[in-house]
Amino acid sequence: MFRLFASPGACSQISIIILEKAQANYELHSVHLAKGEHKKAEYLSINPKGKVPALMTKHGVLTETPAIVLFLHEEFENADILPANYPVTEVVSDLSWFASFIHPLITRYAKPDLIGVTTEVDAVKTVAQTQLNSAYRSIEKRLSASPFWNGDNWSAVDVYLFWTINRLKRAGFAFSEFDHVIQHYQKMLASPVVKRALLKESAL
Ligand SMILES: N[C@@H](CCC(=O)N[C@@H](CS)C(=O)NCC(=O)O)C(=O)O
């Protein structure tokens, strides 16, 4: 039995969807970011980084979404968590791009005040918006060749992409120029696995 520490709408959503795809036996534990629960001693004793997601496994606590994805892929090798016929290194490269480039831009766009530059909040958001638009233009180009990141079926990189769209839509980011990105989002939303994951997350 795994335990996933998650906050509603946060990037822990990616791990929930992957756990659902694997049909893993897991418990969800809520750590409400909005209530500051991730900074409390109880949670810091589980994840000293004070962030979600954290996955408790029989080997200990695992953090960082790409690492959780790879771990679950190794545990559930028939669950199609990673795409077939793609080198794992290529998938890690793509997951890392989402985790290390896109994700911090989302924080700057959605919560520019968290960056700590109190006088330049609007500028932080505007720069993030420009860089995000450029990133989604390249994603749009990729999705014009196939409906999902690695072909006709969705896998881990699609889940990361789905979460970025979900999060940015809530923050008011305009996706109107990105038809393929929106179609990707709608296809992911229609997936029974994703529906199940979002339902479980909504109970947090
Ligand atoms: N690179 C990490 C990012 C984790 C992360 O930044 N999580 C956010 C939620 S989306 C968080 O816990 N933020 C709380 C904070 O930084 O105070 C991953 O991919 O798991």
TrEMBL record:
Q: SUPFAM superfamilies recorded for this chain?
A: GST C-terminal domain-like, Thioredoxin-like
Domain (GST C-terminal): give its ranges: 84-204
CDD domains linked to this entry: GST_N_Beta
Q: List residues of the GST N-terminal domain.
A: 1-80
Query: Which Pfam families does this UniProt record tie to the protein?
Result: GST_C_2, GST_N
Task: List the InterPro entries hit by this protein, alphabetically.
Answer: Glutathione-S-Trfase_C-like, Glutathione-S-Trfase_C_sf, Glutathione_S-Trfase, Glutathione_S-Trfase_N, Thioredoxin-like_sf
Highest rank taxon of the organism: Bacteria
> Under which name does UniProt file this protein?
Glutathione S-transferase family protein
